[in-house]
Amino acid sequence: MAKDEYFLYPKDVDSFGFDWGRLALTVAPEVNGAERFSGGVVDLPSGEGHARHNHPGSEEIIFVISGEGEQMVEDENGNPMTQKVGPGCTVYVPESRFHSTKNTGSGPMQLFVVYSPAGPERALRDLPDFRLIPPGT
What CATH number is attached to the domain comprising 25? Predict the structure, then answer.
């Protein structure tokens, strides 16, 4: 594996653009051969976020790098649990559990997300507002 497949910045890879923000997958089977998980950086402008959704068959970790927002994760009975989150907070989303994130701060919010096993991010390409953003833009 080439050095640039081990050490990646979000600007080095294609990003998935949406009306609510963008996801740059820096770890994934198609990016660098990761087999058991995928992950990347999510950028959410102020006031934006992803609506309630789930990833069938995958767990997710959400780590707040910067900014502040509200994170919702449903409990085992489908009841929404919402909490304010900020830099340094790690959110665990159990397999197939519905969740949502909203940037409630005045500036951008940046997250690092991990999916295990890899795969749920591929379904994002089917969303109506999906657009592929080339590296460096």
Answer: 2.60.120.10
pTM: 0.93
Residue 36 has pLDDT above 60, yes or no: yes
d(CA 137, CA 71): 28
Give the pLDDT band (50/70/90) at residue 1. Answer: low
pLDDT of 119 over the 90 cut: no
At 130, the amino acid letter reads F
Tallying the residues shown for the chain, one arrives at 137
Type of residue found at 105: G
For β-strands 69-74 and 99-103, DSSP reports them as: antiparallel
Residue 54: domain span:
14-59+67-127
Domain count along the chain: 1
